[in-house]
Amino acid sequence: MSAPTPDDLRIVTETLSRLTEYLRDAPEPGEALALVEPLLDEYTGVPVQLGDTLRVFARAVLDHPGTPRTPDLHVLVAELRTAAWEQTDQHTLHYTLDDLRFLLTGVSPGTSEGR
To answer: Model-level pTM?
Structure first.
């Protein structure tokens, strides 16, 4: 796999910005839900991915032989790891979407029928 580029990640953040702007226009709730759902997927959503990214970034910085070994380094790495856990803790937002979907459509999570 080739390394992502800063431009690749700018495209991702620009897409999130476009989504935010679109949602400000108050689209139909079902459509808005469909757009937000992939972001909060319990396995591949943004909270999980960002948490994983922060953890591996902290490890990469810490493990690199050229990184200065200072007390500040360990504080910064600890801050990254704390942020990673805080992000990952947000993975439960997918349950909120499940409840919202039921409220909007009457469809239970994992089914195509109402409860």
So the answer is: 0.81
Of the candidates 60, 61, 83, 84, which has an alpha carbon nearest to the alpha carbon of residue 72? 61
Q: Are 109 and 98 in contact (CB under 8 A)?
A: yes
Question: How distant is the alpha carbon of residue 6 from its chain centre?
Answer: 18
Residues facing residue 107 across a β-bridge: 114
Assess contact for 106 and 115: CB atoms under 8 A: yes
pLDDT digits (tens, 9 = 90+) for 5-39: 999 999 999 999 999 999 999 999 999 999 999 99
Cα–Cα nearest to 39, from 97, 89, 83, 80: 97
* C-alpha distances out from residue 49 to 20, 44, 46, 85, 93, Å: 19, 6, 5, 11, 14
Q: Virtual CA dihedral for 32, 38, 42, 44, nearest 10 degrees?
A: -160
